[in-house]
């Protein structure tokens, strides 16, 4: 088998895998990243699989990456919920409706706001470290964190009132 046919087969399979992942819940960008990771792994493994073994191997590796990504996102959301309720709700547990409200409120944050919350509460970065990362004053970091918390609270209350 010549290399150009093998490459064409790889392209066909990767596009097929990408469509499969999107159909099963991955975002387009996540599916593209997963397919790229699979191809990198194939190159790093320094193996040439026969055409009959190539497709199953690609699917197996892609699905493994997809499940890892899903678990990571689920864990991230659980940590975010836990941190939020430790700060704002002295509840023993988080019910599903509250978690849903938080998830919907988080979707409305822009990238900067979300990164600020994640770095501060999940990554345990200090105000000083955040000001250094974003090249802004410590006072601005504190103000922005306060505003993001208030925005989340407001969004959750509004969503709760609608329900």
Automatic annotation (TrEMBL):
Belongs to the sigma-70 factor family. ECF subfamily. The keyword Membrane does not apply. Signal peptide: none annotated. InterPro entries: RNA_pol_sigma-70-like, RNA_pol_sigma-70_dom, RNA_pol_sigma70_r2, RNA_pol_sigma70_r4_t2, RNA_pol_sigma_r2, RNA_pol_sigma_r3/r4-like, WH-like_DNA-bd_sf. It holds the Pfam family Sigma70_r4_2. GO terms for molecular function: DNA binding; sigma factor activity. This is RNA polymerase sigma factor. Residues 101-152 form the RNA polymerase sigma factor 70 region 4 type domain. Keywords: DNA-binding, Sigma factor, Transcription, Transcription regulation. GO terms for biological process: DNA-templated transcription initiation.
